[in-house]
Amino acid sequence: MNIAIIAKITHPIAEPFAGGLESFTHMIAQAYHAQGHNVTLYAHRDSDKQFKVISFNDPKAFRSLQSQQYEADEYLSIVKDISTKKFDIIHNNSTSPIPLVWGARANVPVVTTLHTPPYTALKAAVSLASYSGNLKFVAVSKSLLKHWKPFIHSDISVIHNGIDLTKWQTSKRHDPYLFWYGRIVHNKGLDIAIDLAHQSQLPLYFAGPISDQSYYDTHIGPKLTSHEHYLGHLTHAEINQYLGKATALVNSGRWEEPFGLSTVEAMASGTPVIGFDRGALREVTAQKGGIVAKGTNVPSLHEALTLVKTLPKSAIVDQSKAFSVERMTKQYLDYFEEIA
After folding, report:
1. What residues contact 182, with CB distance under 8 A and at least 6 apart?
2. Is the pLDDT score of 61 beyond 90?
3. Is residue 71 within 8 Å of 83, Cβ to Cβ?
4. Which domains are seen in the chain, by residue range?
5. Which residues contact 214 (CB under 8 A, 6 or more apart)?
6. SS3 per residue for the chain
7. Which of 27, 99, 101, 228 has the fewest CB atoms within 10 Å, measured from its CB?
């Protein structure tokens, strides 16, 4: 098949990834190509050069005061370019309403993977455009499906995210420290993980891009002691060096995490996950790969931490196998064949 992938264009689809959405897009593009399909990636021009990348605006535009206008112009250029070419399927992974509005009347099926909970701009576009039979929707978890179902006037499939399990190696031992990684923003709750580290008297290693400098300066910097260590923005290989040896991965988010690739990456490394009962955490761990806290505060996380030793490493790793990139790719390609 000739597949066009529309990415979120504000960050490169390349390591170190800005977040889970960029990681997913890179992984699925690689997987389609490995299966022999022709892939065109509409993305930030600094994306991985192994792909055929099409981009229109200077990346510096997305960091300007007019970034929203440049982003809209970029997506308008993307759908205009797609309209001039022959694709069998458009796999939309953006969070922009423009591909949806265009896709409602496009001459090629548009499959949109929903990666975020409903928010105003995207929710409105989905609600209006989903009357079109040309648009298909995939949610990355059953949890996310429940949030989107009231706004979509057609069926929604669920295809769980997957990872390349071979890239995440287990360690023979767990050292006494906690690990946290992701975008450093308020809703990801790094400050909560630091409070947990203080209460449990365990060191905390954390990594990820500082996406909100004000949040970091106000809520993170003042909390740091000699026992908390910021590692910077790491590649997957670098993350695995710390993740595989950690006592636990802390999932301390304040939002309804749609899936949580880091949860599967931790389980594939044999490291248990502790976190709040939000989003897809319970669905992904299935109480085999981690401990879901009873509450949404630091004491409940601490209680969950005391229970992680009850989880056998073999069971943790086995749970990750339900989320392989091979399984995910087959489900997408089977779905594409069905509707193309």
Report:
1. 19, 20, 188, 190, 208, 262
2. no
3. no
4. 2-162+324-339 (3.40.50.2000), 165-322 (3.40.50.2000)
5. none
6. CEEEEECCCCCCCCCCCCCHHHHHHHHHHHHHHHCCCEEEEECCCCCCCCCEEECCCCHHHHHCCCHHHHHHHHHHHHHHHHHCCCCCEEEECCCCCHHHHHHCCCCCCEEEEECCCCCHHHHHHHHHHCCCCCEEEEECCHHHHHHHHHHCCCCEEECCCCECHHHCCCCCCCCCCEEEECCCCHHHCHHHHHHHHHHHCCCEEEECCCCCHHHHHHHHHHHCCCCEEECCCCCHHHHHHHHCCCCEEEECCCCCCCCCHHHHHHHHCCCCEEECCCCCHHHHHCCCCEEECCCCCHHHHHHHHCCHHHCCHHHHHHHHHHHEHHHHHHHHHHHHHHHC
7. 101
pLDDT digits (tens, 9 = 90+) for 81-131: 999 999 999 999 999 999 999 999 999 999 999 999 998 789 999 999 999
Note whether 302 and 200 are within 8 A (CB): yes
Residue showing tokens 């576009």: 125
pTM, two decimals, is 0.94
Q: For residue 8, give the DSSP letter.
A: P
Total Cβ atoms within 10 A of residue 295: 12
294's tokens: 């009873």
Residue 291 Cα distances to 178, 272, 318, angstroms: 14, 8, 15
What are 201-256's pLDDT values in tens digits?
999 999 999 999 999 999 999 999 999 999 999 999 999 999 999 999 999 999 99
